[in-house]
Design a protein that fits this description.
Structural class of chain A: alpha+beta
CATH architecture of the largest domain in chain A: 3-Layer(aba) Sandwich
Largest interface: A-B, 91 and 90 residues
GO molecular function (chains A, B): DNA binding; DNA-binding transcription factor activity
Number of helices of chain A: 8
Number of strands of chain A: 11
Helix content of chain A: 25-40%
CATH class of the largest domain in chain A: Alpha Beta
Strand order of the largest sheet of chain A: 5-6-7-10-9-8
Mean pLDDT of chain A: 91
Keywords (chains A, B): DNA-binding, Transcription, Transcription regulation
Protein name (chains A, B): GntR family transcriptional regulator
Oligomer: homodimer
């Protein structure tokens, strides 16, 4: 990264032993590699390298006024994230695509990714369950009543994207049972079955490490970072109709949107 | 989880060997543990257990119509996430708090978390750098010009929450240099220095595994899930003034907001 010598770095500035100086250089280089990796990640995700090949290391050194070691360390970070690979004789190439999920508009997966391919759903489980108290409360159904539980592994172009756990009030759920859950967003089915559009959803996003079983289902490494979305969706008339717990593979999905300062 | 025997599970239904049946039971129990863990996670994060103690295992078995093994496995999942701990003689208690970051309104960290405590910023690096091409382009400054680079480790009540890498155009950045970056959100400083409110930000959210160095800075385990936020913020007049790359500790921050079906 550029101009490091001019930066005021508040760590270890007064240390003078050779060991401390070496440790400080390593730390500085790690900091610089992270800075560079973040800039390159943005370009990788945004498709800035249309032929899929990153510039050669020497070009990156020149473009970012960075040392060869820093450039290599930055590329190592992106490789560890599974975004790029080093191909002998070619250089560093983009190997993973992350798909942008809309954050500003309430959309189903097939809907939000329609430009990127076809979403198919493997229905792992579907059927009525007695609603646990916290589910009944959020869906506004009587304690102890049944709700429809649906568990889907969702794929884009055959690649696992997310594992979705869904609870639906039974009066609507019973009509979902005969629907084409394999090929249709539940959002679209809800609107068809109720004859009204969806309204608003309360969402919570977290980053969690995948447990062993979830990782296996998503075909991701154990401990892989997962973007976890909890979402309670209401119909336009305000009735809550869809409680979901969604684990997106962190290496395949980003959430993108606009945020405004004033409400 | 309730009523499992009534669920149509599409896996292995036709397998009859004892080994296959045992594997199927293990898989079913893992699925049920994940369902239960997701329901409990929501309550843990929402403060539904005000004294910090989860109900006893036998109560959870009754409430969720789940077997003892399923309940234990669900609690193991939450323990692996660092949300709860088992305390001998007491039971399972909540040990981690995740703080809700607003997703609907553009806010600085101190601003969005003001109800939860005081945010302090350790300024690891601050100074001018020659803007890399992609930074210059996004900030709308001439290629090769200088921008202010700021790197902050941000804490709430002393606990590391996020590592923020920030690029600011130099005409504004030079005035930031004399500001109290340790105790003030950059958003607030930008509004003070420019005399106008912020407008809109383009954001991208991802879940990534922390590299070794970032994890060390955040005092998190290597590979810990990190909520990564890239954000380009504009002033109300549309000028881009703040490009940030933020790594939130996944075990300390959630993003919460409302999403609407129609725009």
């Amino acid at each position: 990264m550029p101009s490091t010598q001019r930066l005021r770095n508040q760590h270890g500035a007064d240390r003078t032993s050779p060991t401390a100086a070496a440790a400080r250089r390593r730390r500085l280089r790690a900091d610089q590699a992270r800075q560079l990796a973040d800039l390159l990640r943005h370009q990788v995700l945004g498709g800035a390298f249309p032929d899929g090949a990153l510039p050669h290391e020497s070009a990156l050194c020149a473009d970012y006024l960075a040392s060869r070691n820093t450039v290599r360390q930055a590329l190592d970070l992106l490789r560890a994230e599974g975004l790029v690979e080093r191909v002998p004789g070619v250089g560093t190439v983009v190997v993973a695509e992350k798909y942008p999920h809309a954050l500003n508009r309430l959309q189903g997966l097939a809907e939000t990714l329609h430009e990127h391919g076809r979403v198919s759903n493997e229905v792992r489980t579907v059927g009525p369950v007695v609603a646990p108290g916290c589910v009944a409360e959020r869906l506004g159904v009587p304690d102890g009543s049944e709700v429809l539980y649906v568990e889907r592994l969702r794929r884009l172009g055959g690649l696992p994207l997310s594992l979705d756990l869904t609870y639906i009030p039974m009066d609507i759920g019973v009509r979902l049972l005969g629907s084409d859950l394999e090929n249709t967003d539940i959002f679209r089915l809800l609107e068809e079955l109720t004859g009204q559009p969806l309204g608003t959803a309360e969402i919570t996003l977290e980053a969690v490490n995948a447990d062993a079983h979830s990782a296996a289902v998503l075909q991701a490494p154990r401990g892989a970072a997962v973007l976890m979305l909890e979402r309670l969706t209401h119909l336009a008339d305000g009735r809550p109709v869809d409680l979901e717990f969604i684990r997106f593979r962190g290496d395949r999905i980003t959430m993108q949107g606009l945020v405004h300062r004033s409400l």
